[in-house]
Amino acid sequence: MIKAALGLVGLMGALAAVPQASAQGNSDYSVLIISRERLEVATTCEIGVYLNDQLSGRLFQEQSTSFNLPPGPVDIRLRLLPGQAPGCAPGLENQHSQRLTLHAGQISKYRIAMDHSGLHLNKASLDY
After folding, report:
1. What pLDDT is attached to residue 15?
2. Would the pLDDT of 70 be above 70?
3. Rounded to an integer, what distance in angstroms lies between the CA atom of residue 55 and that of residue 74?
4. Is residue 30 within 8 Å of residue 108, measured between CB atoms?
5. What is the pLDDT of residues 18-43, one digit of tens each?
6. How is the chain split into domains, by residue range?
7. How many whole angstroms separate alpha carbon 124 and alpha carbon 110?
8. Quick one: CA torsion of 67, 85, 92, 50, rounded to 10 degrees?
9. Distance from C-alpha of 58 to C-alpha of 81, rounded to nearest angstrom
10. Residue 101 CB neighbour total at 10 angstroms
11. Which of 16, 22, 60, 64 could serve as a FRET partner for 33 with CA atoms 20 to 30 Å apart?
12. Nearest Cα to 119, choosing from 58, 20, 49?
């Protein structure tokens, strides 16, 4: 019985020496949320999200994705991806990108929209 009690005290002492994880303090990254939750893009085609010209996410209708990114500028390009849904054949698209500047600890949300110039991001509220 005494051995068990001493073992328990020793275990609790060892756990107290382990540093606790904390979400407080300076964050060295930012969170970027891109959503296709609204039906502003009238197509069933999958949309590819390119961060700095690298395919980083794929979105169908009613989906969203998030990225943990270092602070600083990031170029975001959106394009329709062929092949995953009927009628989504590759074609000529406007290959423009948007540049966002992210700050450490910042959470930004954007929604995908479409107009005469193609796909683009609109700032959205977080609604938490």
Report:
1. 46
2. yes
3. 13
4. yes
5. 444 334 445 689 999 999 977 778 78
6. 27-87+95-124
7. 5
8. 10
9. 8
10. 11
11. 22
12. 49
Tokens of 72: 């600083």
> Which H, E and C letters describe the chain, residue by residue?
CHHHHHHHHHHHHHHHHCCCCCCCCCCCCEEEEEECCCCCCCCCCEEEEEECCEEEEEECCCCEEEEEECCEEEEEEEEEECCCCCCCCCCCCCCCCEEEEECCCCEEEEEEEEECCEEEEEEECCCC
Share of the chain above pLDDT 70, in %: 71
Structure confidence at residue 28 (pLDDT): 86
Q: What's the pTM value of the predicted model, to 2 decimals? A: 0.72
Q: How many CA atoms lie within 13 A of 54 on its CB side?
A: 3
Check residues 30 and 1 and name the one with the higher pLDDT. 30
* Structure-token pair, residue 42: 């009238």
Match domain 27-87+95-124 to its CATH number in 3.30.200, 1.10.287, 2.60.40, 1.10.10: 2.60.40
- Report pLDDT for 21: 38
Distance CA 84, CA 58 (A): 11
